[in-house]
Amino acid sequence: MCLSSGQIQKMAYVAPMTSRNHGKAITYLFGLLAAGAAILVGVSYYFSTSSIHQLLSDNRDLKVAIENLTSEAQIGYATLQSQSRNEQGQLISKVRFVQTASDNPKTIVSEEVFSIEGDIVHFDALIVKFTQDYVQSGEGKALYLWRRIYGENTPPSQGAQIEIPGTAPDRYYNITKALKMKDQAIFWEAIWELANDPDALSQHGIQAVFGNAIYTRLTEDRIYYFKLNRSGQIYIDVFDVR
User: Fold this and answer.
1) CA geometry: angle 204, 205, 208, nearest 5 deg
2) From its phi and psi, is residue 127 left (phi > 0), alpha (psi between -120 and 50) or beta?
3) 131 touches 205 (CB < 8 A)
4) Per-residue exposure over 87-120, b if at least 16 CB sit within 10 Å of its own CB, e if not
5) Burial environment of residue 59 by CB neighbours within 10 A (0 to 12, 13 to 18, 19 or more)
6) pLDDT tens-digit profile of 174-202?
7) What is the CA radius of gyration of the chain?
8) pTM for this structure?
9) Of 50, 44, 54, which Cα lies nearest the Cα of 179?
10) Are 188 and 168 in contact (CB under 8 A)?
């Protein structure tokens, strides 16, 4: 079958148009997918953001668990296990860090040994206060979340993590237990996020209070207790066991 020159020209003309239309369709489809993904992210963010407010406003079990927080005098302690020099001649202190139960300072809920450069050790905590307006029990309550431990010459951002931000601390098991499984991550992520925005939940009577990182020179044969003063700030009380 022979084609005329006119037919050949028409075929050559139609083919590029079909290719361009196909390309436009693909571009349009990708645009729809991208828009859909953006909407999903936005909706997810909205619901996760609104959920923490709903939990703080409507979850009665959560409020009861927070109201049942006891007035703590001591929240843990540290001891120096050993000291040695590394290959660079730097002094390395092995520090045992212990957290105790929120309702019983004699009960250990977690412990870990950290290797810290030097003998002056910094302990960094996030204090989250619930005001009287929130707990309605006549007195404010607070959570004490340990963040980092580091030596004098180590930048805080490079300190070793004591607790993993966003996770539920072992010492506040009763609060975590008061939440449904799907709500636990939402609550604790929002509480830890107060480190970046201390007033994010202020409308619920909750705020983060930054105390300066407490520090001390560690020596053996001593126990360094982490205690709370009347305003709820952490300080170190040294007990000589010799």
Assistant:
1) 110
2) beta
3) yes
4) eeeeebbebebbbbbbeebeeebbeeebebbbbe
5) middle
6) 999 999 999 999 999 999 999 999 999 99
7) 29
8) 0.74
9) 54
10) yes
